[in-house]
Specification:
single chain; alpha/beta; 10-stranded mixed β-sheet; 4-stranded antiparallel β-sheet; globular
Length: 386
């Protein structure tokens, strides 16, 4: 009996050792797919590059490589805010898209992904320099004119463009926002929002400046303690929907119709827990997915007062010859273990990386963002312009 137990244990250990080795070898020898991607990320207050690393995970896992046949490195193959080691010294460099380089960049790159232009603020980078009850001062950020012009040049060449929240919101200037809206037929309403698992001001989840701003406009009152959704317009007007009081379902839901289900293999609905914005589109685009906010009668009345819809676009896709996508949310911000990208078939074990807890943000990455982005890249790679 003892020998049988040892044999079983030995077999399990062999499997645990061999399977990762075979998986890594299989990934190593699978064909490379040349796809030079330009990534812009101006929100990198830490070394983890969380605003774009999960996208690089997908590039690596699917073996998309640069023109030199090497893997896109998430630590340096991007434009934007680049912190230096050691992080305690607070040294950084801006890697900017320069106007004179744009024609060459538009010819060199196959695709463009603007993951985040919100930027880095003093409170994020040099902690303790300002009080937490006021908004911090911008250190570096906002979409600039060269960033916009690169998008335009890529569009003229029918190359893939993916952009997401918050390229249109401050600190992007009104002029650059207007140019981008006109070029891609989208309109930002000025509203942004986010789900919070607790609105209790003692839990320190909601930013202190936001709580203070609301109190200033409501006679010092902050009567919220449950989960809820906060809407903000131009960092001034604040509207709060609290669970049970204003919300039937506390989570914003991303709902996808038949077209998106078939083409991008995403679920028909999924909870979304991160920042989003309310952005509309004209006739040159189509809506692939939409946000749904399930409100009570009281919540509906509150939204009507401020002219906030309870359903609005989540993914906008171009109908023209140029492949353009706008994600009206902070889709790329996901924590993943980058080293696992080099194991083939690991996506089949994605259930190990998230739980059934609806508060688990990893669910969105594995069930929605991964299939969405993988299919966008694959569809484009097959048909990309030469």
């Amino acid at each position: 009996m003892k020998n049988k137990t040892l044999i079983v244990i030995g077999a399990i250990l062999v499997i645990l050792i061999l399977v990762p080795i075979v998986s890594w070898i299989s990934w190593t020898f699978q064909p490379k797919k040349p796809l030079q991607v330009c990534i812009l990320d101006k929100t990198v207050p830490q070394l983890d590059r969380i605003e774009h690393m999960s996208f690089n995970w997908i590039l690596t896992y699917n073996k998309y490589v640069k023109n030199n046949k090497r893997i896109h490195k998430y630590k340096k193959d991007y434009y934007g805010f680049m912190p230096k080691r050691p992080i305690k010294d607070k040294l950084w460099d801006p890697k900017r898209i320069r106007l004179m380089e744009i024609p060459d960049m538009a010819n060199e790159y196959d695709a463009l992904y603007y993951t985040d232009t919100y930027g880095v603020y003093y409170n994020d980078w040099l902690r303790g320099m300002q009080t937490t009850s006021t908004q911090s001062t911008l250190l570096y950020g906002g979409m600039k004119d060269p960033d916009y012009n690169l998008m335009k040049f890529m569009k003229d060449r029918n190359k893939l463009i993916i952009a997401e929240y918050n390229i249109l919101a401050p600190p992007t200037s009104r002029l650059v926002r207007y140019q981008t809206e006109e070029q891609f037929d989208i309109r930002w309403t000025g509203w942004t929002g986010k789900y919070y698992s607790s609105l209790d001001q003692d839990d320190q989840e909601v930013p202190k400046w936001l709580i203070q701003s609301y109190k200033n406009a409501h006679y010092g009152k902050w009567p919220f303690t449950k989960a809820g959704i906060i809407f903000i317009k131009n960092n001034q007007t604040i509207v709060i929907l609290e669970d049970e009081n204003h919300l039937k379902s506390r989570f914003p839901i991303i709902a996808t119709a038949d077209y998106g289900l078939e083409k991008y293999e995403v679920p028909d609905s999924i909870e979304y827990l991160n920042w989003f914005d309310i952005t509309y589109t004209g006739e040159r685009n189509q809506i692939v997915s939409s946000y749904k906010i399930d409100v009570t009668q009281k919540g509906d009345s509150l939204l009507r007062i401020y002219k906030i819809p309870n359903s609005f676009p989540a993914i906008i896709e171009s109908l023209g010859d140029y492949p353009f996508y706008y994600f009206a949310g902070d889709f790329a911000e996901n924590k993943v273990s980058y080293f696992t990208a080099r194991f083939k078939w690991i996506k089949s074990l994605d259930f190990l990386f998230y739980s059934d807890d609806l508060e688990d943000k990893s669910r969105f990455y594995w069930k929605f963002y991964f299939p969405l982005m993988s299919n966008i890249l694959e569809n484009y790679y097959i048909n990309k312009p030469e």
